[in-house]
Amino acid sequence: MLLVPRLGSGIPLVARTHEMRRLRAAFARAERREAGAVLIAGDAGVGKTRLLTALGEYVTSNGALVLTGRCIDVRDGGLPYLPFAEALAPLGSSGDPVVAAAVRSRPALARLLPQSGEPEPMGPGEHGQVSASEREVMRRPRPEQDLGQLQLFDAVLGVLTEVAESRPVVILLEDLHWADSSTRNLLSFLASRLRAQRLLVVGSYREEDVHRRHPLRGLLSELVRLATVEQVALAPFGPTDARAFVEALADEPLPADVVADIVARSEGNPFFVEELLATDADCRDLPAGLAEVLLARLERFPAETRRVLRVISVANEPVSHAALAEVAGIGELELDEALREAVQHHVLVIEDGSYVFRHALLQEAVYADLLPGERNRTHAAYAARIRAIPQGRGHDAKLAFHSLESRDFVTALPALLSAMTEAEKLGAPGAALRHAEQALSIWDAVPVADRPEGVDELKLLHEASYFAGTSGEPERAAAYARSATELLGPDAPTLRSAKVWRRLAEALLALEGTLDEATLAVDRAWELVADSEPSATRAWVLATRAGFLRLLDQPGEALDNALTSVSDARAVGAVGAEASGLITLGTLADSAGDAALARERLRQGIRKARDAEALNVELRGLYFLALSYDDQAEMAEALTHVANGVARAEESGLTWSSFGLELRARQLYLRYLSGDWPAEDAAGRAGRGVSSAVAARILANWVLFLVARGRFDDAARLLPGLRQRWAADIQIALSAGDAAIELATWRGDHTEAVRVTEELVAWLEKIEPWLLGGIRIVALGLTSVAALAADARLHGDQRAAENLVSVGRRLLEHGRRTAVEGSPRSGTLGPEGHAWLARLEAAASGLEGPADAALWSAAASAFDYGAVYEQAMCRYFEAQALLAHGLPAGDALTSAHTVASALGALPLRDAVRDLAHRARTDLPGVTPAAAPAGRNPLTDRERDVLERVALGRTNRQVGDELYISEKTVSVHLSRVMAKLGASRRAEAVAIAYDRGLLTTPAAKD
Fold it and tell me: What ranges does the record list as Low complexity composition bias (predicted)?
């Protein structure tokens, strides 16, 4: 995996904006002769070095002298004044006469400064080695042996004060947790004498290393009481920033579950993130280099402390004192001392009276360092203790875990089965799946006589298939179901065989392109029970088969099967199967156009499913009930019912089951149409552990929001991966294709928009020729075809224009025929279909000349059932058509602008403003001078740069204000000039004002 270059500890400066502002503010005070000190605390790898480096770059660019010194980890005796000797070394060799005179006048400094030549860089960093210059300092006589401390301290303060008269001085001291006593004393002296010097002292230290008895702790408590000293705590990233950091470091998009795993394991520590990313494609293994860094902290601990830490690492959870005493096998006093050592050094923390590693990765490193025999014995000891204590929540899962790791499979198997059942009851199908898979993995290793009664491999496969399906892994669900059918012997009971084949049919139905195989499976299940007496199995098979027959457009047979399933279910008291049959009857009524009957049956089925705790059936009913209102464009009711379904899926742990997924995906699309746009990216992410196809199903809808909000780079990064998932689910193809067309259109790349449209239409014709969603696709694509044709006519290329008109007419014919040949779920084309058909006709009217404004107005009216964003888009195109015909377009522009502004649909808002600006039409609350560009607007960062250039700032000043480098400012300006067609900065500013990209300079001062 390729990574972006590391900067210090790898943290982009922008991620530490708040901390950087505090440091810049401290420097600004120092420039005003308000000397001060800042102490930066943070864990190893959190970004202290990077922050100090950035500060050094900033103050240097503002004319300050930066002096940097670093402490190193030397156990025996230490290096007196090492960081000050390194920091002051440049003064001894400076060619500046002011500096040279200041040094010469203070002979006490002589032994801290190099004897001759330039100082050798001494950059050990947080994990560096002793350099040649450091060894030279070690060889020198210690200053305190032949020079009074006070004289030396006065000399250091004096030279810094004198140099600061000519330019501000910033002294950076890194890794103060390794500082020797002399360094600490000198730092205390300086901090207590900061007055009116142009001097800033900044020190950093590892908070986790400064334990209660650490010599630096006393100094810190003394310094923070001084008015001139402030503290800056550098915390790990929160989940959102950590996710953004991972995605920024990765050279290519990572699967959602990999990103989530890195965020969780790193706990927001940037160094940990980098190391995990550098391992392999999955980032699952703990890198050897990271493990060494983590374990090095533990080497100084006594043997008993290290032993206790190894025991805790095996527990995989917080460990009570009693458990440690029993498993570790050491005395109480020795245990107390070992734990106190680990807690004081911030290796362990106490949570609810139990001990746990402060960093999960440290636990991983300690565990990985165990010898095989040591690991097995400790797991066995934990398992023995768990068996001896009363059972409680999670008891079986813990017993299974430790028994598996200690290779005690006879104990592990029944514990896994119990844990699987408990996980299902708790609404955790993912955990239940893991337990089922672990049970399958050891099944053959457990003697037949030791296997639990009532369970066999076939049952485990059936359970694994079900749990995989309900936890968002349909491919694995189908694989386990196929394995179960292969395991069926000729003597298998008929009803059991039918149940296995039905499970396969349902698992295959969740996958794209397996309908034929799924149909064969359900037919096989039916053959097995067709001549049998009513039973729960027969009722379930009939209910499932009825749903298949409905999908195969055989409504008569579907109705017969559904009615029979209800009858059989009532005869044997199989309420869940009855509910499933009723829901199918409801969907059949909807297809026949009887919405009232459909909703009555759906509600009846939902109630019975809930009574029977048939959760998947209940979710299916809630989905089709929402769809019943959606088909009739009753947007408010549809949103209410789909929200109820999503909530029910979440509370039952079935969020990523087949219909849990469909409910969430439909909710996201309805929110897109209705203008109820989520604020957070989390709405577009699937949960951890789900399959990539399931994650893509949600992401494909979310990318529509990204495009509509103008987050073009984010959308462009995601679309190639979604293109690879078209075949996984046809809805992925429709939503991602829609987004790709609109992205290209907004970027002005109409050729790409037409290419995607034709590619998607050709793909649909092979998969499902007259899918109604195809109307939407060709309607979007026709807008770009018309734009290209108009451009060709403008440039006198009549042949190209005619070819484009032919392309447009083919797309128009496809859309019209789809409206006729397609199969609406409710039997007839609903309001949404008619609205897209109206937009298709409006777009087609612009193929050979200015579009028909009346058709665009009609399309906008067709979307008034609640699709506010699409309606605003139509109003925008209506305004274009009106202006092309020389007619006023104020009402259409105002309507589109109001919606776009309310939604934060920046591309549409900016396009409307640009159109109004060119038409010299005022928009309520917006003056033409404040209107930004339209079709190809500047990014927020480019606009920020241009605003400051307009105020006369230099590139360096712009960079300082925006916390970016001077080179980056130059890159942004180059892009701005290319977009605006300008050859100079001043010309770019003038064009921006003319096009309404910038407000007046007075407004910015």
Answer: 114-124
Q: Cα-flanking dihedrals φ and ψ of residue 830, to 5°?
A: -85, 180
At 876-888, the pLDDT tens digits run: 999 999 998 889 9
Instruction: Please report whether residue 629 resides in a domain.
Output: no
CA 533-537-541 angle, to 5 degrees, is 100
* Residue 2 reports pLDDT greater than 80: no
Whether the Cβ atoms of residue 786 and residue 847 lie closer than 8 Å to each other: yes
**What's the pLDDT tens digit per position in 934-957?**
444 577 678 878 888 887 778 877
Question: Where does 339-408 show beta strands of DSSP type E?
Answer: 348-351, 354-357
Answer yes or no: are the C-beta atoms of 581 and 546 closer than 8 Å: yes
Q: Identify the domain boundary among 930, 955, 980.
A: 930
When divided into structural domains, the chain yields a total of 5
Give the residue from 613, 644, 675 where a domain finishes. Answer: 613
Segment 721-737 shows an average pLDDT of 93
Other beta carbons within 10 angstroms of residue 683's beta carbon come to: 16
Residues in CB range of 548: below 8 A, 6 or more apart:
505, 509, 518, 519, 522, 558
32 & 170 share domain: yes
DSSP per-residue codes, 771-828 = -THHHHHHHHHHHHHHHHHHHHHHTT-HHHHHHHHHHHHHHHHHHHHHHHHS--TTSS
Q: What is the mean pLDDT of residues 262-278?
A: 76
Considering the domain boundaries, does residue 273 fall inside one? yes
**What's the CA dihedral at 831, 836, 841, 846 to 10 degrees?**
140
Which residue would you say has higher pLDDT here, 210 or 73? 210
How far is the C-alpha of 158 from the C-alpha of 163, rounded, in Å?
Answer: 9
Say what the pLDDT of residue 973 is: 85
Q: What is the pTM of this model?
A: 0.74
Residue written as tokens 């992410």? 685
Q: What is the pLDDT averaged over residues 623-632?
A: 94
Q: How far apart are CA 83 and CA 7, in angstroms?
A: 22
221 and 243 inside one domain: no
Per-residue pLDDT, 1002: 34
pLDDT confidence bin for 968, thresholds 50/70/90:
confident
Q: Are strands 229-233 and 169-174 parallel, antiparallel or unpaired?
A: unpaired
Assess whether 983 and 851 both reside in one domain.
no
Cα–Cα nearest to 85, from 28, 142, 4, 13: 142
* Centroid of chain to Cα 479: 29
Highest mean pLDDT among 114-123, 814-823, 949-958, 993-1002: 814-823
H or E stretch including 171?
strand 169-174
Q: Same domain for 807 and 840?
A: yes
Higher pLDDT, 555 or 78: 555
DSSP codes of every residue in 379-401: HHHHHHHHHHSPP-TTHHHHHHH
Residues 328, 923: Cα–Cα separation, whole Å: 75
Structure tokens of 780?
A: 């979007």
Residues 270 and 151 in one domain: no
CA angle 859/863/868 to nearest 5° reads 125
Instruction: Give the single-character DSSP code of 357.
Output: E
Whether residues 753 and 870 share a domain: the answer is yes
**Which residues, including other chains, have CB under 8 Å from residue 814's CB and lie 6 or more apart?**
761, 774, 778
Structure tokens at 346: 């911030």
| Token output for 340 | 């106190």
Mean pLDDT of the region 462-482? 94
Alpha carbon distance 57, 53 (integer Å) = 6
**What's the count of helices (H) and strands (E) in the chain, helices before strands?**
48, 8
**Total residues found in the chain within this entry:** 1005
DSSP of 411-434, one letter per residue? HHHHHHHHHHHHHHHTT-HHHHHH
Name beta bridge partners: 458.
Answer: none
Residue 609 in any domain: the answer is yes
Q: Which amino acid is at 174?
A: E
Place of tokens 């309606």: 871
